[in-house]
Design the sequence.
């Protein structure tokens, strides 16, 4: 039995009072992982961005909006957990400045200067100590190579690699990679089934 | 009995294969307006951006993603209608260039050059002929003044003015303004009730 932290869903980075940058992550993969982890008897906490899906009863849900809030909440929760599954798709750019009102249109172009947000999985991975970290990599090309580079940079014990088609879809097709580049799982199907497959790999390799 | 076109929900302007600019419009006001119009015996077509709400049975729903798609679909549907209620919150800026893949993070700031999208209500209003047009104005300050300016610029017959708090909320508080600046309705409550009030004003003033 492990205490598992799952991050899930997108985050939003507001540029003014109304408009924001985000992505189409639905939270379905995170919900599937929570369900699969609960089925195996683990304790589950989900830190989630704004989504319409409902997480299973029996897990603790911490709702957040921005990537900064997700990092703060996940950092606090990770203290109490044995491992992290970073299934969220945090918005990874934020405007340098957030306008307090609604930017009025002027007819002129709007120059938006964006900087990278902190990487939630990399930040937690860097101070994981004896805990395990499983990351997700969503790539439009060179999936395996880029996923392995992310695994290393984010101090992950396993990396789940999937394509852009996974986003806001009911199905998924993933590879699970180890730090030495082995493919220890190739799973496709409905997201709940894929989640069970990923949890099985985690149980075998990371949870003693 | 009138044939009414309702635009509803947000739109998305993608900056690459994954990330997009949008807003938190839920489509609930549009759904309420569709319901209220159907209750009064009108024919209803809804052109909607990506939302989770379900529109009432009995209306025709045309789903779109971007503001360009909303304008194209609404232009085609408006040909067949007697009036337009523009309740959507189309994303009003788009990147000059959409990257085909997922922009890889480099650690450097990302400069995004945005230009205004075409204004759906203003475009249809400019060629409305004998048809009527009702707009919505969402303002963070100077509500009434800015709403009247929009009414004129967008060739509307009525303008519904509401504040930023309306967005993704279950309730709303609106003023209905005429071209000569009269307030002919002040309605607050659940969005379905507010929608009935707006339809009553439209029926009295615009539908013969």
Sequence:
């Amino acid at each position: 039995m492990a205490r598992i932290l799952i991050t899930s869903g997108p985050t939003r980075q507001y540029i003014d009072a109304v408009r924001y940058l985000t992505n189409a992550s639905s939270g379905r993969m995170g919900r599937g992982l929570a369900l699969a982890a609960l089925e195996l008897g683990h304790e589950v906490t989900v830190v989630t961005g704004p989504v319409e899906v409902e997480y299973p009863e029996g897990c603790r849900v911490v709702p957040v909006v921005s990537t900064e809030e997700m990092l703060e909440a996940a950092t606090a929760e990770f203290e109490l957990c044995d491992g992290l599954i970073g299934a969220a798709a945090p918005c990874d750019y934020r405007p340098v400045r957030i306008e307090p009102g609604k930017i009025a249109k002027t007819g002129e172009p709007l120059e938006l200067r964006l900087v990278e947000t902190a990487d939630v999985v990399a930040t937690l991975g860097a101070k994981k100590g004896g805990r395990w970290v499983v990351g997700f990599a969503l790539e439009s090309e060179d999936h395996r190579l880029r996923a392995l580079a992310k695994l290393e940079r984010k101090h992950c014990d396993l990396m789940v690699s999937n394509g852009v088609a996974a986003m806001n879809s009911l199905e998924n097709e993933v590879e699970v990679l180890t730090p030495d580049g082995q493919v220890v799982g190739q799973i496709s199907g409905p997201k709940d089934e894929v989640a069970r497959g990923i949890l099985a790999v985690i149980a075998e390799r990371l949870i003693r």
About this structure: The longest helix of chain B spans residues 191-205. Chain B has one domain: 3-96+113-205.
